[in-house]
Amino acid sequence: MSSPPAPENPHPTGTRPDGDGERSAGYRAVFGVREFRAVFVAHAMSTLGSVVCEIALAVLVYRLTGSPLLSALTFAFGLLPYVLGGTLLSSLADRFPARRVLVVCDLVSAACAAGMLLPGMPVALLLVLRCVIAAVAPVFTGTRASTLGDILGEGDLFVLGRSVIRIVAQSAQLAGFAMGGLLLAVASPRTVLALTVATFLGSAVLLRFGTRRRPARAATGGGTVLGASLSGMRLLLADRRIRALLLLSWVPPMFVVVSEALLTSYADSLMLSPAGLGLLMCGMPIGAITSETLVGSLLGPRGRARLTMPVAVLAMLPALGYAFEPSLGWALVCQILTGCGISYSLGLDQWFIAAVPEELRGRAMTLMTAGLMTAQGLGMTLAGTAAEFFPVHQVILFGGVLGIVCVSAVLRSVRTSARSTVHRAEAPPQPS
Asked: What does pTM read for this prediction?
């Protein structure tokens, strides 16, 4: 296949050396690429809309049923279908032009959100529509991640572009919950859901007219979408290096979310006000945004790669502080430090894009996203279950200890896969 087109500014003048004299592109160079600016704004709009949709739908379902369980299921249904969409539909990211996939995913999400506006819509159908939005989300996310390589190239700009996308997601989480709460104070849930429809439609328009049309990465062939998705997943998981890197993208977040999932219960044990709980909930996003911005701005590719493994382990350590049942201030520090662990993803991204063949890149990114969301959902579920039988602070502590053990095992696999990859690359070609 032909190589992806170079970014508009492949040698930005704003680069600066890191500690090894290696030059880092910097976030300014990323925003210097016109297509990325369109992707950035579209991502901000759709992410904000998704967060507001979750809050508005949860309130709508609760007002219709009075059931806390059904209201909570609106959040659960935002995570559970990820594994289905990410495994069964992942080939869409490679079999069709990326722009078309992105626009169609946005339109499907907008149509589902519009369906939620219909008066008299049964609660069961509301939850089904929520599942559809969640099922197409990993396809959209994986396709967007893979097309960043086309827009920004496969080097430093790609890694920083992925970093910006994560920063937007964390920022939208903070802004979305605040905006959703304010809007629901003055408007009905269905009126707020209309805003979600507008954000998805706005994202579709930006992606359609703000990005170039590029051909599909893989030939459609005669197989089905399901067959191509499953065969692509088998190929990816059969590669030792890719499998190790996928585990590195899934395992640390699974344990990081333990404390976040139990913050409501922990705040109740401290008899904190709702404002105190809200402050604790802001801790991880603040740490993630701060650390990601600093690491992406100050370090080059080599420096970020060196931080990847130690930071993945260090992200588990703040949970050990809960052994002392910290007060609000210290618990907030623990949450901020935990959020700082997200910066390990910058080095992971540059390893992953180098390991995945281009024709499988869309499926790889979709699988990575689906696994990440599933791992986080599993981590939250197990944490909540354990907290039914043990004190909350002990569950968070044990999650940190178990996380250190599991992440250390994954890192050994990553090191081994790196050595085997080098050995294969250095081996002399076999005579035919």
From this structure: 0.77
